[in-house]
Design goal:
Oligomer: single chain
Low-confidence stretches: 1-13, 531-562
Number of domains: 5
Helix content: 40-55%
Number of strands: 22
Largest sheet: 5 strands, parallel
CATH architecture of the largest domain: 2-Layer Sandwich
C-alpha cells in the first residue's frame, strides 16, 4: 500500500472543521453547537448571535472558518442578507441555511442566492446528525476542489490509473473513505460527455448530474451497490452543464488494494441516448400496433403453424360471441367450417414469409350462425417462430350483392334471348310476307308497314347492344382512330355527307365498342345535321344497327351537291372529337342528349347517344357535348 496515499487519506478524514453558527437565540445556539460536536468529533462550532458581528469575524481572518451555518429569521439582517454579503467576499465558503422556515419557496430562493445547503431545524438527534453530515460533505468538497489536481493524482492515483486519461469513455474515480464519496479523478471524455470542466467536478458527488426526471429507483440501486461495495450497472437520465438531457449508462465497481480493502470506486459513463431514443420509438410503435390490433375494424387472429390460435383482437371476440380466453387455444377449423386440417396445414407450409395471401372462408359464431369472410393471411417469423396473422372481414353484404347481380344477369340473359330470337323471328316472317304482298298488289300502305318493320328492327338492335355491353368482357388494344373511322363510315348511310379525318392518333380501346360509338355518332350527325332532303329509306337516326343497311357507293368520304353535312374526326391534347357543321344541339338539351329514349326525330330510337355515353363510361372516358367550330354539334372524349 502507498504510504503517501494513506497519509493523505488520514489527513482528509481527521482534519478538524471550524464552523461559525449564526443564531440570535443564544440558548438555542449553545444547545445546537453542543449537539453538533457530539455528532461529529471533527467539528468545532463557534456561535454568534449578532449577524453583523458574525460578518466581521468572517472578514477579520482571526479565525479561519470552514463553514457558516445561519438562521433565517433574525433582527436587523436575515439569513439571505448574511448569505449575500458572504458570497460577495467569499464565494467558495460553504454556507448552510438552518431555519424553522419550511416553505419550498425559501429553499428555492436560498439555492438561487448561492446557499450550499438548506435544512429545517429540529430538536431531535437525527436532524443534527444530518446537519453534521452536510457540513462535513460541503467542507470536504471545498477542500478537495482547492487541492491541485497534479498533487491529487500523484498522491492518490497509481500509474495505471493515469492511463484512464486516454480511455474512449468517461471515467471517474471516487473516494469512499471521504465524506459523500467525492470525485477525485475525471478524464477528458467525462468532461466532454457532461459539458463540465474537470476542475468543476472535482470534490463533488456524481449526483450533481441528476435532475427532476432522473429515475429514483435507479439512483437507489446505484447508491445501495456503493454502500455494499459491489459492482452495478444502471441507466440514468442525466443533465449536462447546459441543461440538456442525455441517457448515461453508468457502470460502477470497487477497486481493491493489496490487502483486499476498497481503495476507490471507478465509474464508467457512456452516452446511450441514440439507443434509448430508438427503444422509445420502438415502444411507441409497438403501442400503436397494439392499438391498431385491438381497435381494428377487421377481425384479427394470430395462430401457429398447427392451427392453434394464439391471440385475437376484441373485434373477433365481439363478432363471434366468445371471450378472448375462450378463443385462445382453439384451432382455425374449430371456427371456420369451410377449412380442412390437412388442406390448411399444406397451404400454410407453402406460404412464403412476409407475402400476404388473399382467400375467402367462413366463420361460425357461438350461436351456430355462419357468415362468409375475406381473409388476408401473412406469415411472420418472430424470434425463430412461425406465426400467421389473419385479417378477416365480413363480406356478407358483398356476397348478397353478388347473388343479386347473378340473378340480374340471368334475367338479362333471358331478356336478350327473347329479344334476339322470340321477337326477331316473327319480325323476319313479317318482312318476308310484306315482300310477297308487294309482289301481289300495289298499295301506299306497304311503304308505311316497311318503315314500321325497319324501326322495330332498329329497336331490337339497340336493345341487344345495351344488354351486350353489360355482359361482354372488353378487349382493350391500340386502335388507329383514322382507319376505324373510315371503316365505320362505310357502314353508315351517309345521304351525301362528307367525312373528314384529321388525326393519326391511336386509342387504347375495345375495337368493337369504339366502332359502335363512331357509327352511332356518324348516323346522328347525318340525320340531324343534313341540310338536304333525307331519303325515305334512311331512318337510321341515333340507332345502333351495324349492318342492316349498307352504304351506297357514293357514301365514302365524298361531298354532295345537295349540301350534305361534313363530319370531322380529330384529336385534342387529351383525346379525340367528332363534330359536324349541321344545325347543332341547343344548349338547353346538351345535358339530356345522352339519356335513354332522348330523340328529336320521329324515326329515332332514343338509344344511339345513350350507347355512346355507355361505351365511354365503360372505357373510363369523359364525354362532353358542345357547339362545333362551324356551328354544329361537337362530341369530345377525354381518354387520359
Amino acid at each position: 500500500m502507498d504510504p503517501s496515499r494513506d497519509a493523505s487519506r488520514s489527513l482528509s478524514v481527521s482534519a478538524s472543521i471550524d464552523v461559525l453558527y449564526v443564531e440570535d437565540d443564544r440558548d438555542f445556539a449553545a444547545r445546537a453547537a453542543a449537539q453538533l460536536e457530539r455528532e461529529c468529533g471533527r467539528l468545532t462550532v463557534h456561535t454568534e448571535s449578532d449577524p453583523r458581528a458574525a460578518l466581521d469575524r468572517i472578514r477579520s481572518g482571526d479565525a479561519a472558518f470552514d463553514c457558516v451555518v445561519c438562521d433565517y429569521d433574525m433582527p436587523d439582517l436575515d439569513g439571505f442578507d448574511v448569505l449575500s454579503r458572504v458570497r460577495d467576499e467569499f464565494p467558495d465558503l460553504p454556507f448552510i441555511l438552518f431555519t424553522e422556515r419550511g416553505r419550498e419557496e425559501v429553499a428555492d430562493e436560498a439555492f438561487s442566492a448561492g446557499a450550499t445547503e438548506y435544512l429545517r431545524k429540529g430538536d431531535d438527534a437525527t436532524q443534527y446528525r444530518l446537519l453534521a453530515t452536510r457540513i462535513e460533505n460541503a467542507v470536504e468538497r471545498t477542500r478537495t476542489a482547492r487541492t491541485p489536481r497534479s498533487e491529487t493524482l500523484e498522491t492518490r492515483l497509481s500509474v495505471r490509473e493515469r492511463a484512464m486519461d486516454e480511455a474512449p469513455v468517461g471515467i471517474v474515480l471516487t473516494d469512499p473513505h471521504a465524506a459523500d464519496n467525492p470525485i477525485v479523478y475525471a478524464n477528458e471524455q467525462f468532461a466532454d460527455l457532461t459539458g463540465y470542466r474537470i476542475e468543476e467536478v472535482m470534490g463533488r458527488n456524481c449526483r450533481f448530474l441528476q435532475g427532476e426526471r432522473t429515475d429514483e429507483a435507479a439512483v437507489a440501486e446505484l447508491r445501495s451497490a456503493v454502500e455494499e461495495r459491489r459492482p452495478v450497472t444502471t441507466e440514468l437520465l442525466n443533465y449536462r452543464k447546459d441543461g440538456t438531457e442525455f441517457w448515461n449508462r453508468v457502470r460502477v465497481a470497487p477497486i481493491f488494494d493489496d490487502d483486499g480493502a476498497v481503495e476507490f470506486f471507478v465509474g464508467f459513463q457512456d452516452d446511450i441516448t441514440p439507443r434509448k431514443t430508438y427503444e422509445e420509438l420502438l415502444r411507441s410503435n409497438t403501442a400503436r400496433l397494439e392499438a391498431l390490433f385491438e381497435h381494428s375494424p377487421d377481425l384479427v387472429v394470430v395462430h401457429e403453424d398447427d392451427g392453434t390460435i394464439q391471440d385475437v383482437n376484441q373485434r373477433m371476440c365481439e363478432e363471434l360471441g366468445y371471450s378472448e380466453s375462450e378463443l385462445v387455444g382453439k384451432t382455425v377449423w374449430d371456427l371456420d367450417p369451410s377449412s380442412e386440417r390437412d388442406r390448411s396445414e399444406s397451404f400454410w407450409a407453402d406460404l412464403p414469409t412476409n407475402e400476404p395471401q388473399r382467400f375467402e372462408g367462413a366463420l361460425e359464431r357461438r350461436d351456430g350462425t355462419t357468415f362468409p369472410t375475406e381473409v388476408h393471411l401473412i406469415q411472420l417469423n418472430l424470434a425463430g417462430e412461425d406465426l400467421f396473422v389473419a385479417m378477416i372481414r365480413d363480406i356478407s353484404e358483398q356476397k348478397a350483392r353478388e347473388a343479386e347481380l347473378v340473378e340480374q344477369n340471368e334475367r338479362l340473359d333471358r331478356f336478350t334471348s327473347v329479344v334476339s330470337h322470340d321477337l326477331r323471328n316473327p319480325l323476319q316472317v313479317a318482312v318476308g310476307r310484306l315482300e310477297l304482298l308487294g309482289d301481289d298488289c300495289d298499295s301506299h300502305h306497304i311503304d308505311d308497314i316497311d318503315r314500321a318493320l325497319d324501326r322495330m328492327d332498329d329497336l331490337i338492335s339497340d336493345l341487344l347492344v345495351l344488354a351486350r355491353d353489360g355482359d361482354d368482357a372488353m378487349t382493350v388494344e391500340p386502335v388507329a382512330l383514322s382507319d376505324l373511322a373510315r371503316t365505320c363510315w362505310q357502314n353508315v348511310v351517309t345521304d351525301g355527307a362528307t367525312l373528314a379525318v384529321e388525326t393519326d392518333t391511336v386509342v387504347d380501346a375495345d375495337r368493337d365498342q369504339l366502332q359502335q360509338l363512331l357509327e352511332n355518332l356518324f348516323r346522328n350527325a347525318v340525320e340531324h345535321g343534313s341540310t338536304g332532303r333525307r331519303t325515305e329509306s334512311d331512318d337510321a337516326v341515333e340507332h345502333g344497327s351495324t349492318g342492316n343497311r349498307t352504304a351506297s357507293g357514293d357514301a365514302a368520304e365524298r361531298g354532295s351537291a345537295d349540301g350534305g353535312v361534313t363530319v370531322t374526326v380529330g384529336e385534342t391534347d387529351r383525346g379525340f372529337f367528332v363534330e359536324d357543321d349541321g344545325v347543332g344541339i341547343p344548349p338547353e338539351d346538351r345535358d339530356t342528349v345522352f339519356e335513354a329514349g332522348y330523340t328529336t326525330s320521329p324515326q329515332g330510337t332514343g338509344f344511339g347517344l345513350n350507347i355512346v355515353s355507355q361505351v365511354a363510361a365503360t372505357h373510363g372516358w369523359e364525354v362532353t357535348v358542345s357547339e362545333g367550330s362551324e356551328g354544329g354539334a361537337r362530341f369530345e372524349f377525354r381518354v387520359d
